[in-house]
Amino acid sequence: MSRPALLCLSGHDPTGGAGVQADIEAAGAQGVASLSVITALTVQDSRNVSAVHPVDVALIERQLQTLANDARIVAIKIGLLGDAAQVALVAGWIDRLRVPVVLDPVLRAGGGTELAGEALQSAIARELLPRVTLATPNAAEARRLAGLPVDAAADRAGVALLTAGCPNVLVTGGDETSDATASVINTWHRLGGAPMVYAWPRLAETFHGAGCTLAAAIAARLVLGEPLELAIHTAQKWTQETLARAFAIGRGRRIPGRH
Ligand code: PLP
């Protein structure tokens, strides 16, 4: 019997901090095997992204078809997507595979470069949010996807994404650096339940690849059969540990110590 696997649809980050390498390492640390389909190649260092080259959608389709005919895909993690055509393809595969999906909507690099134009952002909001099990935007991404102003409360954005049809939204607060609190507040908004609020000690820096690491760890915990609530908790705890042992690969932000 083949091992159940996590399908990662993500961009490649040559620094190894974010993207598909983060996913594979995060899943591997949970004891979960990854299948990796790369959506875009990027040029970046540990400070910022300077170019994104989407992979041809027909090639992604062939990779997915080939994998689906062979492997046992039991959950999907989606990170950076290259264009709106990829969104449509991925939406179709979510409908076909009918497994839990964790979407980390990547809209802007921590270094400031825009990673999603208007067409891609609205395709993600319209076609993916209603299809996934859980979305894990940071507060800025949640506001953008909800069409709210940059100073809107993060909670308001989380609730708006529920209303837009996403059943579970974990809004992460690591990017809310103007927040005077000593904690990073992550809030899980869920359909039909009260929000769950998690507070983690705010470390003295920001990291490269923290969001990918968390989303992939949650998806891997779902592969292991954990219920969503436990997966969200254990993955946050583990991600916090990876940040505490983060290391530098260059002159910019440090990357999570996933192994
Ligand atoms: N590059 C890729 C391929 C990514 O998936 C991401 C984020 O998910 C980034 C770069 C940016 O990562 P960060 O915002 O942590 O610097």
Written description of the protein model:
The protein contains 8 helices and 9 strands. It has 259 residues and is of the alpha/beta class. The strands form 2 sheets. It has a 6-stranded mixed sheet with strand order 3-2-1-4-5-6, with helices on both faces. A 3-stranded antiparallel sheet has the order 7-8-9. Pyridoxal-5'-phosphate binds next to strand 1, strand 2 and helix 7.
Short characterization:
The chain has 259 residues and is of the alpha/beta class. The protein has helices spanning 19-29, 57-68, 84-97, 118-128, 139-146, 154-163, 210-223, 228-244, and strands at residues 5-12, 33-44, 49-54, 73-78, 101-103, 134-135, 168-171, 183-190, 196-201.
Overall pLDDT confidence:
96
Oligomer: single chain
Low-confidence stretches: none
Q: Helix count?
A: 8
**Compute the gyration radius: what is it?**
17 Å
| Distance between the ends | 28 Å
Overall morphology = globular
Q: How many strands appear in the DSSP assignment?
A: 9
Give the fraction of residues assigned to helices. 25-40%
**SSE order:** EHEEHEHEHEHHEEEHH
Structural class: alpha/beta
Largest sheet: 6 strands, mixed
Ligand kinds: pyridoxal-5'-phosphate
